[in-house]
């Protein structure tokens, strides 16, 4: 059984929280953006390209993009600076082991198709900016192993388990609701069985 990092008591059940040791990369999902990166030492996105390709996309008015920054020091952290991205101002805390690693970009043609619009307005760009920023946040969690699962136990026996929850806020990421629902479902089955005896 996987190592338990926390146990939450719920009714007669134990909800054990585990690190997801075999998560699927969120870059295999149906993403809106494509992450272009330059590093040859690390996988920092979807497509490794040279700086000219990134510069060409940044200069192409048919694309919407956000700069992606990386902090590489005994691990990798990625983020965008969406609040200042219109001015392309890098974060103020950039150090010697931090810099722009690439971009996350989407063509305006794809935006129009996905959102069934004829024109990409500033309001829609803001929405896309938030969406692309979220894609980077989720990918960063994947790179840092910030993905979890649960096993629901009753009297030492596993009732159910599920993995693929991002972040350590069990309520916000849905892990706790899902685990409690499974415990409640099992509890109802037990009551039905006992009622038939």
Any key phrases for this structure?
4 helices; four-stranded antiparallel β-sheet; five-stranded mixed β-sheet; 9 strands; 2 domains; alpha+beta; 30% helix; 197 residues
Structure description:
The protein is an alpha+beta fold. It has 2 domains: 4-23 and 150-196, no CATH class; 26-143, no CATH class. 30% of the residues lie in helices and 32% in strands. It has 4 helices and 9 strands. The chain has helices at 51-59, 108-114, 122-143, 175-196, and strands at 4-10, 13-19, 34-37, 47-48, 63-72, 76-80, 98-107, 147-154, 157-166. It has a 5-stranded mixed sheet, with helices on both faces. It has a 4-stranded antiparallel sheet with strand order 1-2-8-9. Strand 8 (147-154) and strand 9 (157-166) form a beta hairpin. The longest helix is centred in the last third of the chain and has 22 residues, at 122-143. The two termini are 34 Å apart. Residues 84-90 have low confidence and may be disordered.
